[in-house]
Amino acid sequence: MPELPEVQTTVNGLNSTVKGRKIVSIWNDYDSPYFRNKDEIKNPKFYAKFKKLVIGQKILKAERRAKNILIHLGNKHTILIHMKMTGHLLYEGYKKDPFNSHIHLYFQFDNGKHLYFSDMRKFAKITLIETGKLKHSIHLSHLGPEPLDKNFQFKIFNFQLHKRPKGKIKQVLMDQTLIAGIGNIYSDEILWRAGVHPTSQVNKIPEKNFKEMFKAMKEVLKKGIDFGGDSMSDYRNIKGEKGRFQEHHRAYQRKGKICDKKGCKGVIQRIIVATRSAHFCPTHQKLFK
């Protein structure tokens, strides 16, 4: 699933291509009986309302909240897209790739260009909300603070994670109600850098290591954005291109490989933590319990 860096990369791409453009038509082939009573475009009745409110509107800008893409329109409504497992947006003339061929939605603009949505497993969530009600909507109201905000300092980081004092740190880092945007990939990389075992109990981890985690979190997420996201799986940017963060993994999906930490001779292992995989070095990542 795309995490904070992949979603931010997509938002940056939207602002460089479709910001200021007017939507002139929409097409989609989502239609699921499981969404008949939901406010998503997979519900044909909601899609009819969606089209009516979106066509003819100018895109003011795109933003990110956690793993959600927010496309603000001129009529004070916002298109919310959660890409889920396999979704990604593609702008006109994108690079051809098998992962870019599962088109289930597109927007056409006043310049004749299109914005496509590829979603191989059709899990994505796409809806429309009044912009003024976004913050308190069921989609965003539960989310924790943004880890890259300037105001998100160590004190807040420490406080948020200690809301789950007996939780395993890998699981707690991925809890979207505590900190928004961190998932499987980046939690592994954060813990590798901080030297903390993924099953360490939160309230047993020394403050020194929490400070290392905080520093690692800022560095890893920024690095993820700098490298255009992670395309170990099927994520692509709006040009249809792969990100490059997967070339810089130190833990995630490196099972059986020698640890890259200087002076460490550990071998990366993989375990399951609360149904999610965790990759770590058993030599330099300390277990606190």
Structural features:
single chain; 289 residues; alpha+beta; N-terminal domain of MutM-like DNA repair proteins; Helicase, Ruva Protein, domain 3; 2 domains; four-stranded antiparallel beta sheet; 6 helices
Order of helices and strands: HEHEEEEEEEHHHHEE
Strand elements, count: 10
CATH architectural category of the largest domain: Alpha-Beta Barrel
Q: What shape does the CA trace take? A: globular
Largest beta sheet: strand ordering: 1-6-7-5
Overall CATH class of the largest domain: Alpha Beta
Give the arrangement of secondary structure elements.
Blueprint (H helix, E strand, L loop, with lengths): L3 H14 L5 E6 L15 H11 L4 E7 L2 E6 L3 E6 L4 E5 L11 E7 L4 E6 L5 E6 L23 H8 L7 H5 L10 H11 L12 H20 L42 E5 L2 E5 L9
Antiparallel strand pairs: 1-6, 2-3, 3-4, 4-8, 5-7, 6-7, 9-10
